[in-house]
Automatic annotation (TrEMBL):
One Pfam match: Asn_synthase
Pathway it works in: Amino-acid biosynthesis; L-asparagine biosynthesis; L-asparagine from L-aspartate (L-Gln route): step 1/1
Binding residue positions for ATP: L218, I245
Catalytic reaction list: L-aspartate + L-glutamine + ATP + H2O = L-asparagine + L-glutamate + AMP + diphosphate + H(+)
Domain Asparagine synthetase: 204-567
Site (Important for beta-aspartyl-AMP intermediate formation): D320
Known EC number: 6.3.5.4
Protein name: asparagine synthase (glutamine-hydrolyzing)
One GO biological process term: asparagine biosynthetic process
UniProt GO molecular function: asparagine synthase (glutamine-hydrolyzing) activity; ATP binding
Organism encoding this protein: Parabacteroides johnsonii
Length: 597
């Protein structure tokens, strides 16, 4: 936790500081370093100090040394989970690690802080909502950087540097992705690539667990967590505590697969089945996350971090982000490329526009067609779970609140170029940095768990930048990939398949998110949620009450219907969850209350 001011004369919130110096107040573990009139506060940890040749000094001094020798760009060689604040007599520099695994940074023209709650306590804070940002949340489940839920507040993105000097602020990326292109030729054989990848993966785990003999791991029953466990067991013979989450009454539960992994690699296994009552923790999650945030795995992360309890491993391995590092949505990328290349995009766009209206927003074939077309046509915009624009127009009190999403221009030079663009601009910059790892790391911090992500290693990142697309997304041709005849994460599976139980390797992965209707399944709980949402001042201040009431009535009716398509039910439940989360956020941050059922 920290809160600071750009100018030293500004007044910090009373009662917050455990340590106070040079216009910074902080409570959590922090490494401080002072040299040449430069003061550094380093929050988090570095993983590659030894590799950089700085194993004998602490993280804060390593940061300063690199900056002093090579400037801002020298910091791009740091691999870790950290937020660092550096003050000189006339400037302030704030740096976040490549994926934003440590403290978030919210800032105004006078103050900066590691949480939105802390920032609201600063003198003169203006609690004016950014209505367009909030409408974007209702569509996609988060507010993209640099915006925040308040019009006076900005957020520093993952892997970015913020500089302040003479009243002027400027931010920019340490890891730009605009110029990344697919490799044009293969440097090695498939076997050589696989061996290098395996060595880097094991090295990433070693760097993160250090000399610990008390290691934990999150097991989902899929390749990512399974490969982490297999790699760990290749050099570590001590006790491993594993944790898995399932869902009561859910046919898709992967708990049996997680148990299979536990038995194969000899872990001390603990599991928990969610029943929907976990939604009562939403106020605490809202405060922890800051801006409104909803994602299919939100409550899964909460449940597993709570499950770990007081007997904590020194370090816990998570498999998050590996899908996105290799690249997702290969089939949709191929379909987008083909319909564009063969002149079919205007026709498909026309069909989408016909279906993108309220008349077809019900569980039937037109809905399913629109669902898939949405992913294909908007390949660079990420998943748009939540309210579509035609619903937002009725949901919002004022159409000026509507957020206009940017439409990036697809790189159509080849399938490989489009796949690579999607890989970095969507998978990494949006899904990894602003959704998956943000959520997982913040909830781990909420419970004091030391969660690390070996797949997010800098050396693995650099290796995958050199890997041909066909070893990330394997298919005989673009046409075959478009038909779904494709193997994602091909190199990982090529190396690890023989090490994992067959039950894992032959089953299609379903985990990573909760079946969201579970939180609205119980009639009494759903009634309490409806009462809370409809009584919230959000409905009168920001939303159209009549339309919210119609949504609630419609959801109640559909909750008793059997046979609806999974993704229809999932999307509707996410919409309801978005309404609830925004209501909780509004009462907490705008109305300064915290009432919940």
């Amino acid at each position: 936790m920290f809160v600071g001011c750009w100018n030293r004369g500004s007044e910090l919130p009373e009662g917050q500081q455990a340590e106070l110096e040079e216009g910074m107040a902080y409570k959590v573990d922090c490494q401080c370093y002072l040299r040449k009139n430069v003061h550094i506060w380093f929050f988090g940890e570095l993983y590659n100090k030894k590799e950089l040749g700085y194993g004998s000094i602490d993280d804060a001094e390593t940061f300063f040394t690199l900056y002093d020798l090579k400037g801002i760009q020298g910091l791009s060689s740091l691999d870790g989970a950290f937020t660092c604040v550096m003050k000189t007599p006339d400037s302030v520099l704030i740096v976040r690690d490549r994926h934003g695994l440590a403290d978030q940074v919210y800032y105004t023209d006078k103050y900066f802080a590691s949480s939105l709650s802390l920032l609201t306590l600063t003198k003169g804070f203006e609690a004016t909502p950014d209505y367009q940002a909030l409408s974007s949340f209702l569509s996609i489940g988060y507010i993209a950087t640099p915006c925040s839920a308040f019009s006076s507040v900005r957020k520093l993105g993952a892997g970015e540097v913020l500089t302040y000097k003479d009243g002027h602020m400027e931010s920019g990326p340490l890891f730009p992705t605009d110029a990344i292109i697919p490799v044009s030729s293969e440097e090695k054989t498939l076997e050589a690539y696989a061996e290098e990848y395996a060595a880097l993966h094991i090295g990433a785990i070693r760097k993160r667990i250090g000399e610990s003999s008390n290691v934990g791991i999150l097991l989902s029953g899929g390749y990512d967590s399974g490969c982490n466990l297999a790699a760990l067991r290749s050099f570590y013979n001590g006790d491993i505590r594993s944790y898995s989450i399932g869902f009561k009454g859910d046919n898709w539960t992967e708990l049996p697969l997680a148990r299979c992994m536990s038995e194969t690699f000899r872990t001390i296994h603990t599991e928990y089945e969610m029943d929907g009552s976990e939604i009562k923790a939403l106020p605490a999650l809202v405060e922890q996350l800051g801006d409104p945030f909803v994602e299919g795995g939100l409550m899964v992360n909460y449940a597993v971090m709570r499950l770990i309890g007081k007997e904590k491993p020194d370090v816990i391995l998570g498999g998050d982000g590996n899908d996105q590092y290799f690249g997702t949505s290969g089939r949709e990328v191929a379909l987008h490329y083909l319909i564009s290349r063969y002149g079919m995009k205007p026709i498909v766009n026309f069909l989408y526009k016909v279906l993108d209206r309220p008349a077809f927003d019900k569980d039937a074939s037109p809905y399913r067609i629109r669902f898939h077309l949405d992913k294909i046509l908007h390949i660079l915009e990420g998943d748009l779970f939540g309210f579509p624009t035609f619903r937002l127009e009725k949901l919002l009190r004022d159409h000026s609140f509507l957020y206009s999403f940017p439409h990036p221009l697809p790189d159509m030079r080849s399938f490989e170029y489009l796949y690579t663009q999607h890989n970095y601009k969507t998978d990494v910059e949006k899904i990894i940095n602003q959704v998956i790892l943000f959520k997982a790391s913040k909830i781990a911090d909420m419970f004091g768990n030391h969660l690390v992500f070996p797949y997010m290693d800098l050396d693995l990142y650099m290796f995958l930048m050199r890997l041909p697309v066909r070893y990330k997304c394997k298919g005989d041709s673009v046409f075959r990939i478009a038909k779904g005849d494709v193997t994602a994460k091909y190199l990982l599976k090529y190396h690890y398949q023989s090490m994992l139980p067959e039950a894992i390797t032959v089953k299609k992965k379903q985990g990573g998110f909760a079946p969201m209707p579970v939180f609205f399944k119980d009639d009494k709980q759903r009634a309490r949620i409806a009462d809370y949402v409809l009584s919230s001042s959000l409905v009168s201040d920001f939303l159209n009450r009549d339309y919210v009431e119609k949504f609630v009535v419609s959801y109640d009716r559909e909750s008793h219907e059997a046979g609806n398509w999974f993704w229809y039910k999932q999307n509707r439940a996410i919409q309801y969850f978005n309404l609830l989360a925004l209501s909780v956020w509004w009462e907490k941050f705008v109305k300064q209350g915290n009432q919940f059922f």
